[in-house]
Amino acid sequence: MTVLDAATMALIAAGLLFFIAGTVGLIRFPDPLARLHAIAKADNFGLSLIALGLAFQADGWAIVLELFLVWVLALMSAVVAAHLIFHTALQMRGEDDREEETVE
Amino acid sequence: MTAFLMTAALVLLINAGVSLWRMVRVRAAAEHVLPLQLVGTNTIAILLLLSEAMDQPAALDIAFIFAILAALTPLAFAHRLWWRLPSRSRR
């Protein structure tokens, strides 16, 4: 096993840990907005580590470039997704509070 | 190395399954779209791993498409719920 193989295995194992941490956060965190932290950060960092680990095994620079592009696109879509979900969930929560006030 | 990459992909598949199990157990609308995001990221990582393990560079292109589609899911969610809100809270 070469040094590059060892680096790949270590990075992918660390990435898997972050993915599992994201799922545990999704299940265990008490608040919807806290759960958004778990899914928006932990799993994207895991994806970064896995993409970096695989880049050490790539056959050419074209593969490395494509891994990099997939990673950047996934990060950008995660930012957009987290913002949209947060904004909508916050407004829905405000609506629920107002409805409770009128009932009382 | 191939066996290690396949095992990692299997772990991610189980991880995505746990998120989906969580998704069918909750009721609030926002709670349904959160695990979908996690499954989307899991899918991208699985495709990257399989691309290397099975020596199929085309799987990277599929991962690319999944990364684009992962951004459309919350867009559809926000768009639907936005029209359901009363007009005074649409910002």
Mean pLDDT of chain B: 85
User: Largest sheet of chain A, described in full?
Assistant: none
Q: Structural class from helices and strands of chain A?
A: mainly alpha
Q: Compute the gyration radius of chain B: what is it? A: 17 Å
Work out the count of structural domains of chain A: 1
Query: What is the number of beta strands of chain A?
Result: 0
Instruction: Give the total of beta strands of chain B.
Output: 0
**Helix-strand topology string of chain B:** HHH
The most extensive interface between chains reads:
A-B, 49 and 47 residues
The SSE order of chain A reads HHH
Give the helix level of chain B as a range of percent. over 70%
Question: Helical percent range of chain A?
Answer: over 70%
Description:
- The complex is a heterodimer of chains A (104) and B (91).
- In chain A, 89% of the residues lie in helices and 0% in strands.
- Chain A is mostly helical.
- The mean pLDDT of chain A is 84.
- Chain B is mainly α and 91 residues long.
- Chain B has one domain (2-89).
- Chain B is 84% helix and 0% strand.
- Chain B has helices at 2-25, 29-53, 58-84.
- The longest helix of chain B has 27 residues, at 58-84.
- The model of chain B has no long low-confidence stretch (mean pLDDT 85).
- At the A-B interface, helix 1, helix 2 and helix 3 of A face helix 1, helix 2 and helix 3 of B.
